[in-house]
Structure prediction request, 621 residues.
Amino acid sequence: MTNTQPIRAIIIDDEPLARMIVQEYLQSFANITVLQECNDGFEGIKAIQQYHPDLIFLDIQMPKINGFEMLELVDNPPDVIFTTAFDEYAIRAFEAHAVDYLLKPFSKDRFDKAVRKWLDRYADHQAALAAGQDPSSGSTAPGPDSAPGASTQQALLETASSSPFQQQRIVVKTAGKIKIIPLEDIHYLEASDDYVKIHTHNGAFLKNRTMSYFEQVLDPNRFVRTHRSYIINVQQVTRIDPYEKDSHLCILSSGAQVPVSKAGYVKLKSVLGL
Amino acid sequence: MAKAPLSTGKFLLIFISWWAIWALLQTSLLIGFGLSTGTALADSVFSNTIVALCCGFISNNMQYYLPKKERYWYILFISLGISLLILIICQATLVPLLRGKSGEMDYGIFFSRSWAVRYDIIFLQVACMSILSVLWYSSEEEQENRQRRNDAERLAKEAELFKLRQQLAPHFLFNSLNSISALIGSSPEQARTMIQHLSDFLRGNLRKEEQQWVPLSEELQYLELYLEIEKVRFGHRLSTELDYDPACLDRRLPPMLLQPIVENAIKFGLYDTTEPVTIVIRARLEGDYIRIEVENPFDPETSRPKKGTGFGLSSIQRRLYLLFARPDLLETRVDNNLFITIVKIPQ
Prediction:
């Protein structure tokens, strides 16, 4: 490798021994420096924003916010190698564009393979940057196994949202702070340009996801997409009034009025058992 | 297949004495009609023996063929036919054998005169035996069915209980193995201890039978093992407090009940907060119950454990229901930022 600049890495795992083994295995990669070990996702976000590392080793099950939620909250997340004990997360890891995922306990060989794979990608990326190309459009990046075709990607997404990994809360960042919103606190979701506005007891929060993403991951018996731009929490519904031709207006317990389209009204009626 | 009634010694004895009595009664009746004692005896013993053999045959064969309910009238025809057969055998044997004058009358004439009465009595005996056999076998069959149903239900329940007990979190196992892998490099001694703890824990998980209740002291030892392993993983954040009334220690409870509750509390506590976590386990006697409380901190801002069976306690709830047929033995309570699981075990 011609690149002599050290590669900067961060390890994020809530178990000290699990971090220790990554440190130990990394000793044979002289050009990789571990800048910090983090106990949880909050420390992880801080460290990533402070150091902008080239690579992170990320556990999935962690206190308060898990590895995926942490990644969602980071702007321009670095490359990730997931380290997790349980297979059910592997699909989601793939979806999150992981370089690789290591199933605990993993061997030195397996670890080396994952790191080397990333190093190759990183070297290509650096070379592309040096040549002044946009790496994302070049033939060199990303590697073949990290870019499944669009249909595979869709299949993975569907499997992930139907897996036991049912979303129980939504994590957002507001004024630099991380906020965890339990699903029952949500009144309704509203499409807002490239974001989704989440209306709750304590005000509204923006999240950079699509309406169809939320429609997929939220329990369809609790959250109904009543309109192209609205998803409501059915527990919040107090009244449904007719409104104009073919459409209705849903009145929530907070007093908010949410439009219901013709198709949305059919869905809402079946969920409410009318 | 149901057992034939006559294969039991007791029933066989009753059966034989029954026919001995019949034979004696018939002998005295025949003497009363004026036959000589010898002829009367020969007649009764022979005809009753034939009837007894046929009855035995019927009773044994019903073991293989039992008429369906709607075909019970078959029994009538079978009995009529067999009775006729018996009478013909008796006539064909007895009349040539005892021919001639006996006492005051001719045996041949006597036999043909008593023909109808004999048929009547033989039919009664045979029909009675057939009906008794049918009743016997159907009740046996019914009992067997009930037994089978009970067995099936019991097996299903046991299997479910077994599954509920075996719910070893794979996460726990793999993360523990990962810790061992890390320790092997830095402190092999500690790695060995951890392997020892983990294997003892797994052995305990595999071995125990649902019916064998264990004393609380044993459960606490087992729990200790589990906590040791968790502390290797989370020692920097996890501490535990054990507080029990010594009088509880020899009280018994179903095995492997405590550990899943504590595991749940640890998971809840460790993953819902980022601060150090103290798990408190209390045990004391309360009337006819052992009352065990497990307490863990949580963040009320972000988690809303439902009253009743919050978080991952449903399998414990189900197990308690299968064991005691009561839904009220597991409770949870929220006290500020503490989540408390309470389980009561009837004694």
